[in-house]
Amino acid sequence: MSVLITPIAFLVTLGVLIVVHEFGHYLAARACGVRVLRFSVGFGRPLWARRFFPDGTEWVIAAFPIGGYVKMLDEHEGPVSPEALPQAFNRQPVWRRMVIVAAGPLANFLLALLIYWGLFLHGMPGLRPVIDAPAPGTPAAVAGLTKGDTLEVIAGEPVAVWDDVHWTLLSRLGRASQLEVWVRKADGRRAVYVLRIAADDGADQGRAFLTRLGLAPARFLQPRIGEVLPDSPAAAAGLQTGDWVVAVNGEPVDSWQALVEKIRRHPGQALTLRVLREGRNVEIVVTPRAETVQDERIGRIGASAYAFTTVRHGVLGALVAGARKTWDGAVLSVQLLWKMLWGEVSWRNLSGPVAIADYAGQTAQMGWLPWLLFLALLSVSLGVLNLLPVPVLDGGHLLYHVGEIITGRPPSEKILMLGQRIGMALLFTLMLFALYNDINRLLGP
């Protein structure tokens, strides 16, 4: 069954993105009074076709699933009867045509915003940015960061989970930077370091560039208190987020697993915890609540590991956070494309359909939250890609319309045909690069 997860997840992911994108075009066309002849998911021979609504639109699922299109009534596509001319795309004012063209990418951005909004409302789980011992010679080691440091602020940007660290540093990829990094030390003290990043640090490493900087996640769960549940034994005893449990009843503990095991073995029995809090040793007495799990009586105190956290906002806060995450993703995509174009970042970072299918399968097996995050990220990337000023893409059509506004007339058939050839050549070259990278990743070590 697991063998089928990757292709199914890939098709579902692609299907959602295509339907949302094309539905944006469809709704805008209908709102502007343009007749839509066909709404197709995929290209080539139709495998399934139906007409559901009185507007006469044909809804199609085609044989080649990578892509889709909305076919509108247009004199450039075929003859149009005189009475139907007001519904033709090419007869609309230029601003309406621009709205229809831009609606597809905007729908992708809206999808990402809604996903992020829902996830922030639900609670976005993540791994707290606690670092392992930086490898000697890496920028983190040179700066003075040490094992167990928790990253809190990088270059003025708060970072709550490792994904925040990744996005914040990814925007610096390909250029030299000096970044102020605020960390919380293992004993609770705060410290500030300067991280110096060279122009070529991680330029062709993708997500692994964090490791090259010396910022690898801690490889073990520390015996530190994370989230403390309300009305729990941990809350009643006064345990706080960030408390480092040094010993239980005088016996040292060196990992979260060891701490959990000691608590499980003492249901209903008072335990004396020696914790390190802001550089001070504090003794706390906690009585684990007795619970029965699979016929076994165990103790629990209602606290999670410090390594994990959940980022959660209210309705308005989640909307703001979702909008910011969507915007940051779009800006970062543009920055990386620009840096690739000028050689500041390697083209090896480019991914194609094979990599997308692999990531879709991996995230689907991890659960619906990781898959939704991947879907939102991909939706933003698709929106940005379609806005590039390349003929055959939405951005290319917008460029034509801007030229029409400037010159007062639409581009000639000759220019349109030339642009079509150039656009197809560019997209085909881009696809070859991406496919080559995908094959290299599969065959590489």
UniProtKB/TrEMBL annotation:
Out of the domains of life, which is the source?
Bacteria
* Cofactor(s) of this protein: Zn(2+)
Keywords attached to this entry: Hydrolase, Membrane, Metal-binding, Metalloprotease, Protease, Transmembrane, Transmembrane helix, Zinc
The cross-references to InterPro entries, in alphabetical order and at most eight, read: PDZ, PDZ_6, PDZ_sf, Pept_M50_Zn, Peptidase_M50
Membrane topology qualifier: Multi-pass membrane protein
Q: Where are the transmembrane segments?
A: 6-28, 99-119, 368-388, 415-436
Tell me where the signal peptide lies.
none
- Which EC main class describes this enzyme? hydrolase
Q: Which SMART domains match?
A: PDZ (SM00228)
Family annotation (Gene3D superfamilies): 2.30.42.10
The GO terms this record gives for MF are: metallopeptidase activity
Q: Where in the cell is it found?
A: Membrane
| E.C. code | 3.4.24.-
Q: Which residues form the PDZ domain?
A: 225-279
Q: Which family does it belong to?
A: Belongs to the peptidase M50B family.
Protein name, as recorded: Zinc metalloprotease
The UniProt gene name for this protein comes to: rseP
